[in-house]
UniProtKB/TrEMBL annotation:
Keywords: Lyase. This is D-serine deaminase-like pyridoxal phosphate-dependent protein. It comes from Alkalibacillus salilacus. Belongs to the DSD1 family. Pfam families: Ala_racemase_N (PF01168), D-ser_dehydrat (PF14031). Residues 249-346 form the D-serine dehydratase-like domain. It comes from the Bacteria. The keyword Chloroplast does not apply.
Amino acid sequence: MTEDTPQLCLNAKVMERNLDRLATFAKENELSFRPHVKTHKSKQIARKQMDAGAVGVTVATLDEAEVMIDAGIPSVMVAYPITKAEKIARLKTLAERAHMIVSIDTTVGADLLSEAFVQESVDVWLKVNSGLNRCGVEPGEEAAKLAQYVSELPGLNLTGIYTHAGHAYGATSEDERLAIAKQEAESVVTSAGRCEDAGITIPHRSIGTTPTVFDAGVYDGVTDIRPGNAIFYDMVQVGLGVAKPEDCAVTVKATVASKHTNRLVIDAGSKALSLEKGAHGNESVVGFGYVAEHPELMIEKLSEEHGVIPIDPDSNCPLAINDTIHIIPNHACVTVNLFDSYVVSTGEIWSVDARGGSK
């Protein structure tokens, strides 16, 4: 096993515990479990999720879809509108190898997919906006109108409605997070109801988002969950109150490279930890990661290969040059994508198979 740093470390026992919690929740609430793999980007972990009861996986890109199909995953949902000709052609090729579900949120996107799949047909899910204000039609009447349009197009099988309440990552209180979870579930269930009032059956009503999954997932009418980060957790989730540091399965191992009167310098900078403090405005995150062995320390500054930790000259900081620390990242999904492999607590090395994978 490599001992060099910076190193992406995975605690297999913690990951398995997180996975078991999700799988048990899905089973107890009769939900289809379709986890998002953009967090881990690993064939090995995706197979473990399938073994735990997942019906398939969710991806953000076709690169990720291809890696998952290569791993033998039988059903892949692409939670991103596919409209570019090159991507549609690639999607058609992938659809010959596995069951694909594609996102739609515009009539233009629907038309382009219909033209491409008029001979073969493909399952599509309509995305509704539950408050993030990114992709997605407005729930209710606008969703039903697009569903009607899609249902009349050849080549498209409208089988689901889904949303992503990413604004939950910016919640400043538990009450706000729970309100977002309610809004998330209702946006999907209400939209599906409006569609079914018009005679359009919507068998899948899917929610995602780790901060809300255990709350939105219990709403009557929700059938499908797609959490990603919950396989690992990170300091954003800790700040939101949905996890504790001991629930975080991924850390970055770093070495003290330099020590001065008022600071330590470690060999993990922005190319190992990223500069993110929460993509959706979460203010609970302090610094650039949580030093597990010394929570009193804060990583104050990152350059590309350096992390700077201020120390009190009178504190007698015990860390010396070549000592190592483990850092829980602010955002695990971004951090994982910076590494080629995991060093697993079992002694194994697992590849980050879909690293990059942005197309």
